[in-house]
Amino acid sequence: MPDVNISEHFSISITNTMEMMLESDVNIAVPEYIEPNTSGYDVTGVIGLAGDIQGVALVGMDLLTAKKIATKLIDADENEFDEDKNNSELADAIGEFSNIIIGGAKSRLGKTVSITYPCIVISENHVAHRPTHIPTLKLTCQSEYGSFSIEYTIQQVGSQSANAA
């Protein structure tokens, strides 16, 4: 299960990313346990974690929010992403956004953890399937760019016990 402070690490990373990269405030809801394989998003950045903490974290959002975030991150025209839902620049921008958030949380953990390159899924209302034997926590975020969520299904390995929240 996630360490007791893991949600705090993600929240700090989300806040820092939004302030520094998007010049925006963000409201982050209280973390909640969710049933695995239930969240439907249009765009998702998926990043694996390995080492003292193992599992997967994702950053999910609807297509409009993804376009708004990408537009700001790469200083693009908002209409640039309208023609092609699988636009590689959109995927690159959301991959970077996901990497910054997950990487920022990882750096705060104080543990030996490696993260994978982000894998970006762009498909209407898709579901990311995760292990069902590990709890999944969700942080729902609201900003001027729209709503997005961080979900993580992770466990600490080794002799220390872990608590979720």
Task: Give an account of the 3D structure.
- Helix 1 crosses helix 3 and helix 2 crosses helix 3 (88-108).
- The protein has a single domain, classed as CheC-like (Chemotaxis protein chec).
- 30% of the residues lie in helices and 35% in strands.
- Strand 7 and strand 8 (146-156) form a beta hairpin.
- The chain has helices spanning 6-22, 63-74, 88-108, and strands spanning 26-28, 32-34, 40-51, 53-61, 113-115, 119-127, 136-143, 146-156.
- Mean pLDDT is 87; it is low at 161-165.
- The longest helix is centred in the middle third of the chain and has 21 residues, at 88-108.
What's the Cα radius of gyration? Answer: 15 Å
- Any idea of the CATH class? Alpha Beta
SSE succession: HEEEEHHEEEE
User: CATH superfamily assignment?
Assistant: CheC-like
Task: Using brief descriptors, characterize the structure shown.
Chemotaxis protein chec; 165 residues; alpha+beta; eight-stranded antiparallel β-sheet
Topology:
Elements: H1 6-22, E1 26-28, E2 32-34, E3 40-51, E4 53-61, H2 63-74, H3 88-108, E5 113-115, E6 119-127, E7 136-143, E8 146-156
Antiparallel strand pairs: 1-7, 2-7, 3-4, 3-5, 3-6, 4-8, 7-8
Helix pairs in contact: 1-3, 2-3
Précis, in short:
With 165 residues, the protein is an alpha+beta fold. It is built from three helices and eight strands, in the order H-E-E-E-E-H-H-E-E-E-E. A hairpin with a 2-residue loop joins strand 7 and strand 8 (146-156).
